[in-house]
Design goal:
Pfam families: MFS_1. The protein has 394 residues and is mainly α. It has 15 helices and no strands.
């Protein structure tokens, strides 16, 4: 019971810190990019370009952060990310010229590379090794509300006091809330085995060539799904309108995605808890193409089904990104390996708003065939993979 209480405390602390990290970084430009751009004499698109560059920088820094977590645990890395977020947000608030705003987003990119889900998952694996799967689900349940908290709070602060004050507030929250929470995490986890153990706790596929192919396959799957998720986040309402939904209906469907993500994570925590993560990933990857085909073939009446399916699939995939590499390849070297697996996805995420925007301008609603096709390709890759662990909890 005492052990369960400690683990629950870790999940609560890390989940709350992750909610703050996502709300003040990934979800910040949607609300503050335009006033930020006007203040320094730029267009909104230029701020989003800086945000894309920050995502690319996060992809580069991720493997280094993961390697440090493997060696020293997540506590110092996550705490350092809070300082990076606070510095970046403070510099944003002080920015009067494009150059200083660009530097601020560079600091945010460094902090995102060391402070978002990848680092949190690696921290849990360092602390609890093969038992981390349920805890990964736990922090995604809490942090799944990051947009629900972040968008309204950023908007309210900007309206009441201004966008600079909103940035100052987020910076203060990192120092007063996020930093103490991450410093409260245990210093050390379970001792890592000198070599991966046999049986169910290690992948049967230990040959370097086979593991390399599996890693490439997973990296492709995560990258394709990351592209889809970011494209829908950036263009979802506009896409739905192009397919026949009115503005109110399109916004309502888009608003369902967040709750659907959390509902799917609850479902994973309960009904799918004993299912191998590869099966969960297949189910998650199927969701967007299934919703996309329904919307393309049936039109506006299928809008609600599309929103629910896309949100549920996206919610499950977040867990898969943490749990599947753990089961497939084991806990040894998890942090660096997982960051490498997700790095290509970071690059595609940075390009997704622009590329899918071009497709939407050229093909209108038929651009949904692009994301649907990419989802089916990711599903095909997963279907060709085999679970290399004899038990879901391994």
């Amino acid at each position: 019971m005492q052990l369960d209480t400690r683990r629950s405390g870790t999940v609560l602390a890390l989940g709350t810190a992750q909610t703050l990290a996502w709300a003040s970084s990934y979800y910040l430009p949607a609300v503050l990019a335009q006033p930020m751009a006007v203040a320094v004499g730029l267009q909104g698109a230029h701020v989003f370009a800086m945000f894309s560059a920050a995502l690319l920088l996060a992809a580069l820094i991720g493997p280094l952060a993961g390697r440090q977590i493997d060696r020293h645990g997540g506590r110092p890395v996550l705490a350092l990310s809070n300082l990076g977020f606070a510095a970046g947000l403070a510099l944003m608030a002080l920015s009067e010229q494009p150059a200083s705003l660009m530097l601020a987003w560079a600091l945010m990119g460094l902090a995102m590379g060391a402070g978002l889900y990848e680092a949190a998952f690696a921290t849990l694996v360092h602390l609890h090794r093969q038992d981390a799967r349920g805890m990964i689900t736990g922090i995604t349940l809490i942090a799944g509300f990051a947009s629900t908290v972040g968008w309204p709070l950023s908007s309210w602060l900007a309206v009441q006091w201004g966008w600079r004050e909103a940035c100052w507030t987020w910076a203060a929250l990192h120092l007063l809330l996020g930093l103490p929470l991450n410093l409260s995490l245990p210093r050390r986890g379970a001792a890592a085995p000198a070599s991966p153990p046999g049986g169910s706790a290690a992948p049967a596929q230990e040959a370097r060539g086979g593991q390399g192919r599996a890693m490439l396959a997973l990296a492709l799957v995560f990258a394709l799904n990351g592209f889809i998720a970011t494209a829908m986040a950036a263009h979802g309402p506009r896409l739905l309108q192009a397919l026949g939904l009115g503005m109110t209906a399109a916004v309502a469907v888009a608003a369902l995605i967040g709750p659907a993500q959390v509902a799917a994570r609850l479902f994973e925590f309960g009904a799918l808890r004993r299912v191998h993560p590869l099966q969960s990933a297949r189910l998650a990857t199927l969701a967007h193409p299934l919703g996309g085909l329904a919307l393309l073939l049936l039109g506006a009446p299928a809008g609600l089904a599309f929103g629910l399916l896309h949100g549920m699939g996206n919610g499950l995939l977040t867990i898969s990104k943490g749990a599947l590499p753990l089961v497939m390849f084991g806990a040894q070297g998890y942090g660096q390996r997982q960051a490498l697996l997700l790095a290509p996805g970071r690059v595609l995420q940075a390009l997704a708003p622009w590329l899918f925007g071009l497709a939407l301008e050229r093909w209108q609603g038929q651009a949904l065939w692009l994301s649907t096709g990419l989802g089916l390709l990711a599903l095909l890759v997963l279907l060709r993979m085999r679970p290399h662990s004899s038990s879901p909890s391994a």
